[in-house]
TrEMBL record:
Keyword Magnesium belongs to the record: no
Pfam families per UniProt: CPP1-like
Native organism: Hevea brasiliensis (Para rubber tree)
Gene Ontology CC terms: chloroplast membrane
Domain of life: Eukaryota
Keywords: Membrane, Transmembrane, Transmembrane helix
Keyword match ATP-binding: no
Protein name as it appears in the record: Uncharacterized protein
Chain segments annotated as transmembrane: 12-29, 36-58, 70-88
Length: 107
């Protein structure tokens, strides 16, 4: 999806690609969790978190490192794709098992 978004970046943004990615993420989460409600919440939550993080951190990237035709919307969608991938890859994992104890606290 990222490659498709980059190739069509000048045609009005990656909204369709993001929608297809969200639908695919929900489908794969439903296959793994066998719970459509949970799959929808995880998929939509990961999209929102990715879009929020992308909106915050992408503008901080120096313009020298970014291709001149890549827009803020395109780069934000690439971050959202990453978040959707992680959500589909680790749906049943507790974040504490991925990150470890925070601040030395035991769970």
């Amino acid at each position: 999806m990222g490659g498709w978004s980059i190739m069509n970046s000048a045609e009005g943004g990656p909204a369709f690609q993001v929608a297809v990615s969200l639908a695919a993420c929900i489908y794969f989460l439903n296959e793994k969790t066998k719970n459509l409600g949970r799959a929808f919440i995880i998929g939509l939550g990961s999209l929102a978190a990715g879009w929020a993080c992308g909106s915050i951190f992408v503008p901080m990237i120096p313009t020298v490192l970014i291709h001149p035709t890549w827009t803020l919307e395109l780069l934000t969608s690439l971050v959202a794709y990453l978040f959707l991938f992680v959500a589909c890859r680790y749906p049943g994992k507790d974040m504490r098992t991925l990150v470890g104890p925070v601040g030395g606290l035991a769970y």
